[in-house]
């Protein structure tokens, strides 16, 4: 039954006391407080109960504060059999920290002065020590956060409950055992505790600029398997509502996606997104529809739209008192508030989408397992979605809105920035969330407004609304800003704001404010940006702001002041090193905090030293620094990729193979990593492994990378995989034909394909032809003639295949084209080699006329391939001799022509 209460908390679902009367009412009341957004009341009771119990021995520092807290927990809190009570307290502390720093409004409790036996200036010093205790590998956590004590205590309690090693007092070189969760043997309550620990660690990671340390590995290990939910569900009552179980599984998959986004493994998001979509039976598709976007537009133009409908969890939407944050209207004399779509069925959808993305495969259907399932044609849209009114779609459940938002974040993290088509896709996703009727959850709706505002600040016609909306959302989090755009509201729905915070990527309130500063910076409003950074106490960002506009001297002053205030800020040292290109500063950063970016900067420095440094590239030093970086943070795809590239460059193929193997495990769809891994295997004479890697590369996003296809073709030739050779040849011609023309044809390899084809048995029954025969014939006889311009050799290959197909008339036409291609050479009258080549081509054509001319022609037994072949032979020879007369009369080629003419 304890597990049941915790599931209710996870789902933010009302506790029905009458149905679980066997439970201790104290725990029921505690759960109700957490579910109702009143965790701060439990924290206040905790502070009152243990007032002044924490005593710091000696001078106030990070270590002394942590020792005092650990002693307090061991004496007063951590007791055998009290794990359930400890877990409730850890949850309440975490939720209060999140309310104060992420969702608002802040619960103003005096935690430090209440728990610690201190007064006066010691309170501020203790808060600073607590904030510094949350630093990870030299990256300090945001120092002006509210009440870091709540998060520190929550993390310490969850470490005790789960029996895991503490991350607060672990050395950087120490190995940390990862939690193992079994569906059968792990108790449900322990699985719940691990789930909450993963949430707390993700909260911790959101306090630092970049993911680092052991935390990402631990979070990933907790979320890596669905056994986490199985372990919880097995301890639930047999009659527990199946819909709630389904909801729990859906929540797990959403949080797994959030975890992948937080630790920079976003390429692992799609499998979980696909599973939660099927689990919730969420139906949505991106397609095209004509839309009117301005007040004066007479004709609608093609645009992207998301058609979506929820089928499960609609009834589980958590009720809210204040439906949504304040929204700014566009108030434009030109643009409509939202596009007005015409009926989706008004015209073929492929015409609409084609104008947006001309290279799409219009024959592809509706793909379920894509980030954005796309219907290019009307018939590909699911029937249930086809009937929706595009201007008045039904409200979606919050779980489905979150799915759309998580897909948006995944697309942003895996596509180029400022790509117009990607921005259109993201706008379509956000429009589907924002332009729906009904109650809206504050957190989901505010996040959608925020992302729309970021997109709008890149466009001149919407930048004003975007900036105003961003500022208003920052203010609604209860920041202490002197002048506000909107009045404060007394009625704030804390439950609604906290309900889905663990499924959405964490964005602390100061990160919202700093993003606003970045926007000001991009618009050239330097003063406003610097004012925000200074108010937030972000010295490193202030320095980067100055460096971005070329004021490096001011940036250095800011960083020196920061280092003076906090000598352990490894990030500040590293940024100073980036500005001054001084290796000693990066070394100092690594020495004091094991800051991985410092090692990455050192590696880049020694890989490609600045000209003024006077040193030569040092690949050994580069590899050493990258190795140090990866030992501290092994989840960095970019670092592994650089490591592998350096290995390739300096000939260390085993090292390169290991590095690119790690790359493809982090991102299985990265074509260049697969290609580079194959290059390492080829050098190591592991052809089969190289071939397998190249197959993965070409199956990924490498459709336009001719180098990968060429490597694939060459390895396939070595392994005699001729069907794959044919596929590669076709793709190479498709990719390179526009720029290289017939240079895209690899003649020796295609000649080998032709040889294989014409030595096989031909059947006039198409059903008896093999796939290779059909595909190769189409390639040689249909595709290549569209590409060939001057190559007689290519035409002769086509002629061989046409003759194999028992089409002698087509073969003779190819011989004629081969002769015309070479006889039009402008060097014919000045270059004897060109003359001899043309004479040889003429002899070949005469031989073709002689051997093929009297065969049965295209129109049956009474026709000939070329009835007047003798006349054509003489005419061809005569024409060529007229071109060479007076210049090549005494050449051997001339004698050959006379000999050929005499034999007809």
UniProtKB/TrEMBL annotation:
InterPro entries: TPR-like_helical_dom_sf (IPR011990), TPR_rpt (IPR019734), TTC27/Emw1 (IPR044244). Keywords: Repeat, TPR repeat. This is Essential for maintenance of the cell wall protein 1. TPR repeats lie at residues 637-670, 671-704. The lineage of its organism: Eukaryota, Fungi, Dikarya, Ascomycota, Saccharomycotina. PANTHER family: TETRATRICOPEPTIDE REPEAT PROTEIN 27. The keyword rRNA-binding does not apply. It comes from the Eukaryota. The keyword Glycoprotein does not apply.
């Amino acid at each position: 039954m304890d597990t049941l209460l915790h599931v209710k908390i996870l789902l933010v679902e009302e506790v029905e006391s009458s149905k679980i009367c066997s439970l201790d009412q104290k725990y029921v009341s505690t759960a109700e407080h957490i579910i109702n957004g009143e965790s701060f009341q439990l924290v206040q009771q905790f502070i009152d109960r243990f007032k002044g119990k924490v005593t710091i021995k000696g001078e106030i520092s990070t270590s002394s504060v942590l020792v005092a807290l650990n002693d307090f927990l061991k004496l007063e809190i951590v007791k055998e059999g009290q794990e359930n009570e400890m877990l409730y307290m850890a949850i309440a502390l975490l939720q209060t920290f999140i309310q104060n720093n992420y969702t608002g409004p802040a619960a103003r409790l005096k935690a430090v002065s209440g728990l610690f036996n201190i007064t006066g200036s010691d309170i501020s010093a203790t808060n600073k020590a607590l904030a510094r205790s949350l630093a990870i590998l030299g990256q300090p956590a945001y120092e002006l956060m509210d009440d870091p004590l709540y998060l520190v205590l929550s993390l310490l309690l969850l470490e005790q409950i789960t029996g895991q090693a503490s991350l607060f007092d672990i050395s950087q070189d120490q190995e940390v055992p990862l939690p193992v969760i079994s569906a059968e043997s792990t108790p449900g309550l322990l699985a719940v505790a691990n789930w909450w620990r993963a949430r707390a660690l993700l909260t911790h990671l959101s306090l630092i600029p970049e993911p680092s340390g052991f935390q990402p590995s631990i979070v990933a290990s907790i979320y890596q398997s669905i056994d986490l939910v199985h372990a919880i569900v097995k301890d639930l009552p047999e009659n527990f509502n199946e819909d709630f179980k389904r909801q729990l599984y859906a929540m797990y998959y959403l949080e797994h996606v959030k975890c992948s986004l937080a630790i920079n493994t976003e390429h692992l998001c799609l499998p979980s997104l696909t599973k939660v979509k099927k689990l919730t039976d969420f139906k949505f598709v991106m397609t095209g529809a004509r839309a009117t976007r301005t007040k004066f537009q007479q004709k609608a133009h093609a645009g992207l739209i998301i058609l979506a409908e929820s089928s499960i969890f609609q009834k589980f939407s958590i009720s809210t008192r204040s439906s949504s944050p304040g929204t700014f209207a566009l108030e434009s004399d030109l643009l409509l508030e939202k596009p007005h779509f015409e009926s989706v069925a008004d015209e073929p959808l492929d015409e609409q989408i084609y104008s947006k993305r001309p290279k799409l495969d219009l024959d592809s259907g509706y793909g379920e397992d894509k980030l954005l399932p796309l219907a290019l044609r009307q018939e590909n849209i699911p029937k249930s979605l086809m009937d929706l009114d595009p201007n008045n779609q039904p409200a979606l459940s919050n779980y489905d809105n979150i799915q759309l938002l998580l897909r948006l974040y995944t697309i942003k993290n895996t596509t180029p920035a400022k790509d117009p088509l990607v921005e259109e896709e993201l706008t379509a996703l956000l429009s589907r969330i924002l332009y729906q009727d009904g109650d809206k959850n504050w957190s989901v709706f505010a996040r959608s407004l925020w992302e729309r505002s970021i997109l709008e600040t890149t466009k001149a016609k919407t930048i004003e609304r975007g900036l105003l909306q961003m500022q208003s959302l920052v203010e609604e989090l209860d920041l202490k800003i002197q002048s506000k755009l909107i009045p404060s509201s007394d009625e704030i729905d804390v439950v609604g704001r906290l309900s889905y915070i663990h499924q959405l990527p964490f964005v602390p309130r100061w990160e919202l404010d700093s993003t606003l500063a970045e926007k000001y910076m991009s618009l050239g409003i330097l003063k406003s940006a610097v004012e925000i950074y200074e108010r937030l106490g972000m010295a490193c960002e202030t320095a980067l702001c100055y460096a971005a506009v070329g004021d490096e001297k001011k940036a250095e002053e800011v960083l020196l002041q920061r280092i003076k205030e906090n000598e352990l800020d490894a990030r500040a040292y590293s940024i100073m090193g980036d500005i001054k290109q001084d290796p000693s500063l990066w070394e100092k950063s690594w020495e004091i905090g094991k800051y991985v970016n410092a090692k990455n900067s050192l590696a880049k420095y020694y890989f490609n030293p600045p000209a003024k440094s006077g040193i030569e590239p040092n690949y050994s030093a580069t590899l050493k620094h990258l190795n140090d970086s990866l030992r501290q943070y092994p989840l960095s795809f970019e670092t592994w990729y650089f490591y592998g590239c350096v290995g390739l460059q300096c000939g260390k193929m085993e090292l390169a193979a290991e590095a690119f193997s790690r790359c493809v495990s982090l991102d299985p769809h990265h074509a260049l990593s697969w290609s580079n891994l194959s290059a390492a295997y080829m050098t190591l004479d592991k052809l089969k492994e190289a071939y397998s890697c190249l197959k993965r590369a070409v199956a990924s996003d490498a459709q336009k990378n001719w180098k990968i296809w060429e490597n694939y073709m060459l390895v396939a030739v070595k392994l005699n995989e001729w069907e794959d050779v044919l596929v590669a040849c076709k793709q190479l011609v498709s990719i390179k034909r526009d720029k290289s023309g017939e240079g895209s044809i690899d003649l020796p390899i295609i000649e080998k394909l032709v040889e294989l084809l014409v030595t096989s048995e031909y059947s006039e029954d198409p059903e008896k032809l093999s796939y290779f025969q059909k595909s190769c014939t189409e390639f040689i006889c249909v595709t290549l003639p569209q590409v060939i311009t001057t190559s007689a050799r290519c035409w002769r290959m086509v002629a061989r295949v046409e003759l194999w197909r028992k089409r002698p008339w087509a073969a003779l036409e190819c011989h004629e084209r081969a002769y015309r291609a070479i006889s039009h050479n402008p060097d014919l009258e000045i270059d004897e080699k060109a003359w001899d080549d043309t004479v040889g081509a003429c002899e070949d054509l005469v031989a073709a006329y002689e051997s093929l001319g009297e065969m049965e022609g295209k129109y049956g037994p009474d026709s000939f391939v070329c009835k007047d072949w003798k006349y054509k032979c003489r005419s061809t020879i005569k024409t060529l001799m007229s071109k060479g007369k007076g210049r090549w009369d005494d050449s051997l080629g001339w004698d050959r022509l006379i000999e050929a003419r005499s034999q007809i």
